[in-house]
Amino acid sequence: MHESVLLTESIDYLNLNDKSIIVDCTLGYAGHSSQILKQIPNGYLYAFDQDKEAIKEADKKLKAIRNNYEIINTNFVNLKEEINKRIDKVDGILFDLGVSSPQLDEADRGFSFHKDAPLDMRMNRDQSLNAYDVVNTYSANDLTKILKTYGEEKYANSIAKGIVKAREVKPIETTLELTEIIKENVPEKYRRVGHPARKTFQAIRIEVNDELNVFKNALKDSLDLINKGGRICVITFHSLEDRICKQIFNEVSKLPKELQNLPIIPDEYKPKFKIIANIEPTKEEIERNPRSRSARLRVIERS
Ligand SMILES: C[S@@+](CC[C@H](N)C(=O)[O-])C[C@H]1O[C@@H](n2cnc3c(N)ncnc32)[C@H](O)[C@@H]1O
Predict the structure, then answer these.
(1) 3 state SS of 38
(2) DSSP assignment letter at 268
């Protein structure tokens, strides 16, 4: 079961009315999409996911509500192109980033360092690059760079060297083999603060799915798709995603520094968006659903 994070808050901030046209970029198991669909009987929902297994389950749930929706089985990097084939502008766009609980829990997907599985980590299983390729073919330098930038892992260098040394003996095939190598290449004390493999797994997952570039491009495109008064809601799960969101939202909602002291701002220079919210889950939600611990919801509105 996937328990949706910041569900009530994100749905409230979408400001739905019965005719809203909404895009859910991350359908998953339709937690958010089901709530949206219930509130837009005369509107329409377009929902993206690149994971066929999630789509199968989500479609059953949505069908039971109403049929004013379309599921688009592709990476949300294609958001603008796909939406513009169907419609010009929409009233709300939601991103609930990362992987879902079922993706983490299904051992054979290889996302979890707790469960033994082949190194995979692809959200889209039709894609060719997987975690096995990253771990077994990237140079020590590239691995270090990835672990540093996508994992903010302070032992990136020694973990990368450990990986390269281990694969000289035999290919690294499973999540638990990789976890053992990570443990052997970090200091004893580091093993006591959180799980030592967490950051490395995050980094490899981001690399396999090219998550940060994809999100940055899609979020920029979503700015062009939103109607006046429409909102973009983004739920992120780590600081790298959140930084991208914060930066893009600030760029489009703040006056450039050189114009800030002008007594009158010409219309064409006025920011096109305004920031509506920047919130974290409540203590109660974090207690109920520990996965929400690092989540943050940011919302902007087209002025
Ligand atoms: C956190 S889950 C969403 C959960 C959903 N909001 C719910 O309440 O059930 C993220 C989902 O987005 C999908 N996803 C992540 N990145 C994607 C991308 N770039 N393109 C398409 N789908 C993506 C994943 O496959 C996963 O199913």
Answers:
(1) helix
(2) G
pLDDT tens, position by position, 105-114: 887 899 999 9
pLDDT digits (tens, 9 = 90+) for 2-24: 789 999 999 999 999 999 999 99
> What angle do helix axes 31-39 and 52-63 make, rounded to 10 degrees?
30
Q: Distance between CA atoms of 165 and 242, rounded to whole angstroms?
A: 34
Task: State whether 133 and 171 are in the same domain.
Answer: yes
Residues 135 and 84 in one domain: no
Q: Ligand 1, closest atom to CA 77?
A: 19
Q: Which amino acid is at 152?
A: E
112 and 92 both lie in a single domain: no
Give the distance (Å) from ligand 1 centre to CA of residue 50.
Answer: 8
Ligand 1 pocket residue status of 30, Cβ below 6 Å: yes
φ and ψ at 278, to 5 degrees?
-150, 95
CATH number at residue 117: 1.10.150.170
Specify whether 240 is located in the same domain as 192: no
Residue 76 CB less than 6 A away from ligand 1: yes
CA distance 4 to 205: 21
**For the domain that residue 216 is a member of, what is the CATH number?**
3.40.50.150
| pLDDT tens figures, 149-159 | 999 999 999 99
Specify whether 161 is located in the same domain as 115. Answer: yes
The boundaries of the domain holding residue 136 are 108-209
Contact 121, 204 (CB under 8 A): yes
Which of 160, 193, 209 lies at the terminal end of a domain, its last residue? 209
Other CB atoms within 10 A of residue 240 CB: 18
Number of domains within the chain: 2
Q: Strands across the sheet with 21-24, in order?
A: 69-72, 44-48, 21-24, 90-96, 226-236, 296-302, 273-279
Check if 32 has its Cβ closer than 6 Å to any atom of ligand 1: yes
160 and 114, same structural domain?
yes
The reported pTM is: 0.95
**Among the listed residues 73, 23, 10, the one whose alpha carbon sits nearest the alpha carbon of residue 224:** 23
